[in-house]
């Protein structure tokens, strides 16, 4: 096994225990077993195995060789496995892993019992390495980043809930059980493989030691000379490097948590008096709306862009006929492919909230959100419309909402559309009936989250007559005629196509609602929370999302004239790009708010 060994020297004749161990291993391997006619029937499993090996010498030798080769392939494969799906190519395994050479050396120098313990620990280490590589693959595929052991365990229950809502409870349970069984199976196989290879090395110490010397020499030479093969270094330390990256990522995350806690206490507008907040929007009904997964790819990708572009242009023209005009730009989201609440909280708080720990830290405090600023003035009623919320949502207080309307408060009696509890058109109509259309003493600030463009984009709702919406039962036939989620989510091209259609539907629902119910005092701010998952948005896609401000009153748009945003609902490619966390302060300042810092 030259690829699995490194520098060592054979046991010297005078070394205590060395000759005895070598003789014992050799005797165990080659000692003849009496034929059945000359010996009693085997009583133990080991005895029966020895008897079978004696009767079937060639088959036993072939089985031993096959098992050894398979064990070596498994170990080398685990050490060289990449952490992204596109990188899983045959040439990635044409390397010499340093961890294999070092592992062989350790097995050669240890006595029998310590060697067995080391083999088990080595196998468990390979299990951990394989697990984090597989998690990295999944996170890179969906969220465009690697797995973070310090932060991401909390996302696994959300992932199971998503699978349950999308493909059913049975599939979600089977997936969870399958994941646990897979990890246990990998552990069992890896431990068995390392024990097997450790035994082979000990039985062939002389040859194994020579192989270790050769492999170590080749590895050092290739590393020193920087030799490559198929575009990558021949001398690999992929396994140790992957574990080192995860360890560093974990340490950095823990340090970041403490630093962010201090940052969250500082607030540019934390001590601003109510009368100096948003004076230039007094009397306006202001609506902040997030469209799920509405990212830059929807406007620029060649598969999605034509349909989405036509929808944005058509909507811009229709709004103009109703007296509304728009300005649009780009924001760089704090999240990608999922975890929409990170995008929502980043936009509203002015803090960069790109992980769950930061989210928990900031929502546990009293940092001023943009929505809370409206409430603090005393000049607005504040409401949230969140059809995706199906359980208690304590963040309602942090956002500064007087009232929250969740999935159970909107009177919907129609079918679910995969993860989305109701079509956007219905959610907006329910918002109009229950909130926006009612008389009140104060103007309204609304925080609305639309969900129809949430993956897996099947089945998709379709526009119906606004007067036909009723309790949503009209969507029964639409849902039954739609595509199956399982057929779309496994097909990249179809996923892109259906994603584009979902954005067209959400934008159409929102702009038609505005045409139908908007007034001279309505101000709509709508944007995406993040790009769709990497398989749809494309490898190395940006994190940018479109953002638009729409109003009839020209003074509202004049206040942001120096932002240099594009006229209409479709931002130009070279329109300004800001970090999403910059939006709160820019918006507050544009509409007359005076900074008075707190904390820090």
Automatic annotation (TrEMBL):
Organism the protein comes from: Streptomyces coeruleofuscus
Protein name listed in UniProt: Sulfatase N-terminal domain-containing protein
Stretches with biased composition (Low complexity): 32-42
Disordered, as annotated region: 1-42
Composition skew (Basic and acidic residues), residue ranges: 21-30
SUPFAM superfamilies: Alkaline phosphatase-like (SSF53649)
Transmembrane domains' residue ranges: 62-81, 93-110, 117-135, 174-199, 211-230
Keyword Transmembrane: yes
Domain Sulfatase N-terminal: 392-534
Keywords in alphabetical order: Membrane, Transmembrane, Transmembrane helix
InterPro entries (UniProt xref): Alkaline_phosphatase_core_sf, Sulfatase_N
Domain of life assignment: Bacteria
